[in-house]
Design the sequence.
């Protein structure tokens, strides 16, 4: 297979040294796998070739963008070819009138927003990893970010996709026109974590930069007060552009690093942003401040200009980098609860940390109810990994019991695959497995992800009634 | 730095209203009367009905409010299954801005309940009889999508009864979720081919304090940031504004034209033949000039609804629309009227067909209705 791949690509884009295989055996999470080979295509045609070659050799194909995923989505847990899209990083076209862009899957999220900025536009999904992660990875994970509260996750910003399917065929699904006819294949492809198709080009929406903006920083003497403020703002009918929470430990870590003047004495801070017409922005900022005050905010301040605003967001988005000072390893979680259950869930999260004697830090998309508990540990301590895993499982269970979901934005991948039955019964999982089977009957693309083994459990005869149009 | 609390709004611009214009009700169709009718009163009864129909190979036409039955290839049913027995709000969390509603509930019924707490599901400003399940299955969005996006962006969870009577749920009752494949989104626009939508969790939005409609007598230009909608008709164009009192007043002041309080939606074009033209938004203007007078163009969205009996002319129009990457869809036709309802099938038709077979193996649910006769 490797020889065939070498013949299809330049040989320096087919890698099989021990070091390279090691590097591409993991993503930003904790799992690792052993690829047989790493292939780096530059064109759609090369992707088709790789898929066909792997297919002939019955080898899995695992698509990979920047490898910043946290759920082991890009980890080749069952070996095979790791197909890296980072050289497919052309912005093919930006159309400022249509407010759209055709991009390669390897384009870095932030590069796209920078390229669109001269037209007063940006790409709305803004994961905290946006300086590194790819648009292809965003699409595959249906990634979110602080500003997805009002703008929605990646799926709301994808119009059409060129995809290579597991049998090597190429399709362009979706359309620039609204409501394409037929079943919404584009919709189900987004968030499918490389298990249904490999995105080789995407037509995405660009969003106009709002005419006015206010960014508020509110600090509180308890996590509960901050969480009550979040629930209260939503309950008052305001959906800000972003509503993020950072707890004291995180604030301290960030402050140590960036010296931005964050209030380190507070138990938690909220970062809230509202955008739109000036009158609306003022009214909404007032309301947020009022709710914060009613929940005993210690201080409320408004970013004085673009520099201050940029600094606040830098603090938020570098939080995961900053925590490295606290312990050598961290396990970052991603779960969601209804926003009405934030206060009680946060209390339980800290309680789990205390009970397992783990340092628990929290920095998260509070406005969506999207939690990111961060467990700090030293993996070299014996028994530590098991302890972290036990705490993590409890955490997920607490969130699901509160009416929540396993993942709000990082995906299921290998990490949460076996937790799927917490949320879904056998009929639900079977339906999911049928979707996978329809696109990928031989299980070639990213096997072992999203669905636990044995999900496809009802009649497998595959027999179709006479006259069925297949 | 921050100003004090505002009082409740009293002055000026009028409270949001969603009007159901009488002409829109005329579009409703009646279910065929010469076949058996069923009105299952529970999910279990519906599942039993479909499972039995599957084993007997009896074709089922699923019927909500009858407002979007003019779409797609005709189905000749052995059985009509109505969703009106599944028509309640299952769970409503006003403070979380989510609602779980059964498919047979009318959109008007849902919206008026939600309005009691100042919320909206931003479903289509439909005829009063249209159901939530029907609006989802037909993939219909509100005019207000200009600000809030299409319906498919706001569905969080779906429960379907598949053709062979399995009850399957996907998604969750939270506003952000990537747990598993997005079957909820896939159900939007599926016209019942994957299953009967028995319930769905929808993301809600607060109703704005005030709203207004401005009839333009000049260029809209870039005067307003994200209006609810901009609608062009043969003899006028209107901008629909919503927000706080100050915000709406400021926008009205900048716009050339007459304003009136509330959201005054146009009547839908009505006639024996009705059509929906969908093209990339920036190209839509080019198509407007070729249309007869009775049309509504959702500016910035790229959808134009209109009526004409000139089916001949529609062949040519469809060729141009498809060349522009769009589609021309028949949304209503007279009894016995024949015209290819969808036009050229979209990409991935073979996968679409296999997906339908995975959810409806005996091919009994609205069979053949979708593009490609899936
Ligand atoms: C510090 C940090 C902060 C983060 N913050 C956020 C955040 O705020 N919000 C958020 O949502 N995520 C966040 N993430 C997670 C991660 O960055 C996102 O999931 C991101 O979208 C992954 O992009 P990637 O290019 O790194 O994809 P990878 O990790 O390489 O791959 C992710 C998944 O996508 C698939 N894939 C990649 N490219 C393609 C393609 N072209 N076609 C098909 N499948 C493909 C892979 O198989 C895999 O399943 C964060 C991660 C880190 C490390």
Sequence:
């Amino acid at each position: 297979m490797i020889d065939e791949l070498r013949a299809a690509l330049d040989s320096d884009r087919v890698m099989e040294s021990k070091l390279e295989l090691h590097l591409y055996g993991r993503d930003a999470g904790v799992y690792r796998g052993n690829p047989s080979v790493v292939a780096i295509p530059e064109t759609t045609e090369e992707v088709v070739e790789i898929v066909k070659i792997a297919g002939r050799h019955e080898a899995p194909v695992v698509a990979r963008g920047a490898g910043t995923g946290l759920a082991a989505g890009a980890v080749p847990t069952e070996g095979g070819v790791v197909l890296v899209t980072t050289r497919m990083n052309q912005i093919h076209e930006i159309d400022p009138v249509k407010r759209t862009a055709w991009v390669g899957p390897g384009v870095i999220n932030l590069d796209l927003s920078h390229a669109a900025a001269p037209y007063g536009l940006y790409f709305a999904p803004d994961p905290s990893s946006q300086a590194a992660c790819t648009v292809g990875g965003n699409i595959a994970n249906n990634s979110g970010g602080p500003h997805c509260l009002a703008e929605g996750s990646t799926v709301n910003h994808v119009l059409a996709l060129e995809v290579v399917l597991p049998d090597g065929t190429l399709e362009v699904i979706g359309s620039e026109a609204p409501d394409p006819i037929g079943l919404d294949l584009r919709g189900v492809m987004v968030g499918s974590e490389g298990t249904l198709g490999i995105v080789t080009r995407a037509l995405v929406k660009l969003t106009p930069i709002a005419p006015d903006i206010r960014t508020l920083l509110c600090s509180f003497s308890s996590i509960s007060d901050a969480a009550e403020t979040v629930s209260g703002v939503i309950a008052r009918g305001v959906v800000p552009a972003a509503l993020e929470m950072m707890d004291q430990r995180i604030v301290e870590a960030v402050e140590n690093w960036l010296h931005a003047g964050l209030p380190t004495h507070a138990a938690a801070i909220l970062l809230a942003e509202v955008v739109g017409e000036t009158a609306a922005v003022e009214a909404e900022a007032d309301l947020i401040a009022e709710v914060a005050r009613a929940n005993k905010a210690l201080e409320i301040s408004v970013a004085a200009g673009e520099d201050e605003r940029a600094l606040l967001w830098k603090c938020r988005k570098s939080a995961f980098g900053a925590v490295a000072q606290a312990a050598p390893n961290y396990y970052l979680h991603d779960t969601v609860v209804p926003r009405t259950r934030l206060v009680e869930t946060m209390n339980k999260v800290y309680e789990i940390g205390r009970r397992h004697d783990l340092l628990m830090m929290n920095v998260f998309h509070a406005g969506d109810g999207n939690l990111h508990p961060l467990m700090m540990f030293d993996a070299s301590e014996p028994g530590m990994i098991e302890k972290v895993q036990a705490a993590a499982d409890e955490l997920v269970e607490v969130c699901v019991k509160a009416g929540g979901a396993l993942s709000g934005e990082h995906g299921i991948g290998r990490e949460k695959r076996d937790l799927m039955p917490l949320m879904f019964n056998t009929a639900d999982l079977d339906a999911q497995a049928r979707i996978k089977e329809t696109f990928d009957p031989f299980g070639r693309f990213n096997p072992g992800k999203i669905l636990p083994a044995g999900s496809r459990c009802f009649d497998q005869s595959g027999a179709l009634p006479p006259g069925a149009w297949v | 730095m921050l100003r004090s609390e505002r009082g409740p709004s009293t002055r000026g611009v009028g409270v949001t209203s969603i009007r159901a214009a009488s002409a829109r009700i005329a579009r409703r169709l009646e279910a065929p009367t010469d076949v058996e009718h069923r009105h299952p009163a529970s999910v279990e009864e519906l599942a039993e009905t479909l499972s039995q129909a599957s084993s007997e190979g009896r074709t089922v036409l699923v019927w909500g409010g009858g407002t979007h039955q003019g779409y797609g290839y005709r189905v000749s049913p052995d059985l009509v299954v109505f969703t009106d027995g599944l028509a309640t709000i299952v769970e409503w969390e006003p403070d979380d801005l989510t609602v779980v509603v059964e498919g047979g509930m009318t959109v008007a019924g849902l919206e008026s309940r939600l309005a009691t707490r100042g919320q909206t599901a931003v479903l289509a400003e439909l005829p009063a009889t249209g159901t939530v399940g029907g609006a989802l299955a037909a993939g219909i969005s509100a005019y207000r999508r200009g600000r809030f996006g299409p319906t498919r962006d706001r569905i969080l969870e779906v429960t379907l009864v598949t053709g062979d009577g399995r009850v399957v749920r996907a998604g969750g009752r939270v506003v952000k979720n990537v747990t598993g494949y997005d079957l909820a989104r896939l159900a939007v626009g599926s016209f019942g081919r994957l299953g009967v939508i028995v319930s769905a969790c929808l993301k809600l939005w607060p109703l704005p304090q005030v709203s207004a409609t401005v009839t333009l007598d000049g260029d809209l230009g870039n005067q307003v940031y994200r209006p609810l909608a901009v609608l062009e008709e043969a003899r006028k164009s209107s901008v629909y504004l919503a927000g706080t009192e100050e915000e709406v007043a400021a926008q009205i002041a900048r716009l050339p034209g007459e304003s009136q309080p509330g959201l005054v939606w146009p009547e839908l074009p009505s006639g024996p033949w009705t059509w929906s033209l969908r093209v990339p938004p920036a190209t839509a203007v080019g198509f407007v000039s070729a249309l007869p007078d009775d049309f509504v163009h959702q500016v910035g969205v790229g959808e134009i609804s209109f009526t004409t009996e000139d089916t001949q002319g529609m062949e040519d129009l469809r060729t141009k629309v498809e060349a522009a990457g769009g589609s021309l869809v028949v949304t209503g036709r007279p009894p016995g009227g024949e015209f290819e309802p969808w036009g050229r099938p979209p990409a991935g038709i073979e996968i679409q067909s296999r997906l339908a077979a995975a959810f409806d193996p005996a091919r009994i649910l609205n069979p053949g209705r979708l593009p490609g006769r899936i």
